[in-house]
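Per reviewer request, we include the raw input and output of the structure prediction for the construct analysed in the revised manuscript.
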Amino acid sequence: MEVIKKALADGRRTLTEHESKQVLREYGIPVTREIEVNNRESLIEAIGEIGFPLVLKGCGSDLTHKTERNLVHVDIRNEEEAAAAFDRIMKEVKKEGGTVLIQEMVKGSRELVVGLTRDAQFGPCVMFGLGGIFTEILRDVSFRVAPLEKKDALQMMQEIKGRKILEGVRGLPPADIDQIAQILTSLGRIGLEQEHVKEIDINPVILDGSRPVAVDALVVLQK
């Protein structure tokens, strides 16, 4: 893929969030609508295209711990708020060659994590589990070696302790199990077809009603 080739040619080992989502989109994985900007003029154009409410994020291949660095501003509801958030983020990321992502705000209380890791013994392995801020604490995840068929993906969803999150609970609709299965099988395809992809971390995947949407993503590369 061109975005991967370019990053490797530039000597980079990670894709930006925006580039990572380009890879996912190529494989049919649903991602947030977003536009990358680096000036006020393009900010206003992006706002007009995406609409409020918005999330503004710092974007760059070397930007880590964005929330801790105050590089993520959520629930932006007017141009004044957007401009102020843009200026704050841009001041921080400009020196690192970064930009700002103007992103639709996906609403949902249920968060999942999916990913890919390239194991030295088994090759590309796909991961599924509970996402959000408790991913590292709960470690409620399931793994499968690629390639995956739909039945493998469905089994993975049943193996986590928190599987009831996918059901219709407290007035929420059941998750679109078929689309989640498609995400997992697509990750397996990426692992098999893109040899330069070492890891993929998609956290969170938010359930917007029943629809899963990749809100944040990181692709790590290898030679």
